[in-house]
Amino acid sequence: MAGLFNEVGYEAATIASLVERTGLTRGALYFHFPTKEAMARGVLAHAVTREGISPQEYKLQEWVDLGLVLAYRLPREPLLRAAVQLSVDPKARSLFGTRWPDWIDVGQDLLGEAKKRGELLPHAVPEEIARLVVGAWTGVQLVTETLPDSPGLAEEIARLYQLILPNVASPGVLAKLDTSPHRPERLLRPSEGPDAPGA
Predict the structure, then answer these.
(1) What residues contact residue 163 under an 8 Å CB cut-off, 6+ apart?
(2) Which of 4, 24, 62, 106 has the fewest CB neighbours in a 10 Å radius?
(3) 174 in a domain, yes or no?
(4) CA atoms of 110 and 191, how far apart (whole Å)
(5) What is the pLDDT of residues 108-159, one digit of tens each?
């Protein structure tokens, strides 16, 4: 189901094609999802996740990790890709919106805590940073997937943070943040976390 939304978009994904893709009967599909809109909402419900994010010394690192881990997971997970596809699909967006406000809220919470701890520069406004980075992140993702020689989403998102952070992070914190595109892979291997020997 998620793969079909990702491939053809919301409008072109018919119930017949969803039945064929899932291998379910129409009755079984309708038992779980009474409408195509309900199916799309189910995909979007899984879009906002903190999987792979663990508490760090700096809340600003957790905020960076959120974007880096999502960038690592997105190309590998059809459900997340479908959620992004539905969020940029004009028809789907007009029917049930996007999860971008939720991503903004998650980022704003982390950045607000970072501000309280003195991790952000005095002029940095958490609400503005969260909103602009969600927009920039989405734009980078959309452009990256269309470029034939793209270095990959995690690499591009790492560069995005490397450009933004000097303008918002206090110097002492900035020097300790890890924006490596390889960090998400380490975070998603709990037995070999980012602080493990050799990591």
Answers:
(1) none
(2) 24
(3) yes
(4) 25
(5) 999 999 999 999 999 999 999 999 999 999 999 989 988 888 889 999 999 9
Please say whether the beta carbons of 12 and 40 come within 8 A. Answer: no
- Token pair listed for 131: 């909103």
* Residue whose pair of structure tokens reads 């038992």 in the numeric block: 31
Q: What is the pTM of this model?
A: 0.80
Q: Residue 177: name the closest of 119, 110, 105 by CA.
A: 119
Q: Tell whether 127 is covered by a domain.
A: yes
Handedness of CA 30, 32, 37, 39 (dihedral sign): negative
SS3 call for 67: helix
Paired tokens of 125: 């406004």
Helix orientation angle between 126-144 and 59-73, rounded to the nearest 10 degrees = 20
Encoded tokens for 22: 């899932």
What phi and psi values does residue 56 have, to the nearest 5 degrees? -125, 165
For 50, the domain range is: 2-189
196 in any annotated domain: no
CATH code for position 141: 1.10.357.10
Token pair belonging to 148: 């034939």
Q: DSSP characters for 19-42? A: HHHH---HHHHHHH-SSHHHHHHH
Split into its structural domains, the chain has a count of 1
